[in-house]
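Researcher: Next sequence.
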Amino acid sequence: MDFYHQHNLVDPALAGRERRFGIRVTLPANDTLRNVLGNDWERLHWYPSEAERDAAFEKMALRHGYYRTSDSPTQVLEKLTR
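Model: Next structure:
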């Protein structure tokens, strides 16, 4: 498989690995961003190991430094296993 853009989420060296552990990112029912993205928006991230998934989950759950103090970002994170 060819990768054309550097910003793709999958590292070409790891593209063939089985990924059984995931994180589903959705928005709360009352989030106004749903007006832009739609009510069925979700993003799935898959990882080859439970440890990698759990580390990514913890990082995603943190409030990062790019938000303004007055911002209240919302997201719903859910761990998945397939």
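Model: The first strand starts at residue 21 and ends at 26. The chain has a mean pLDDT of 85.
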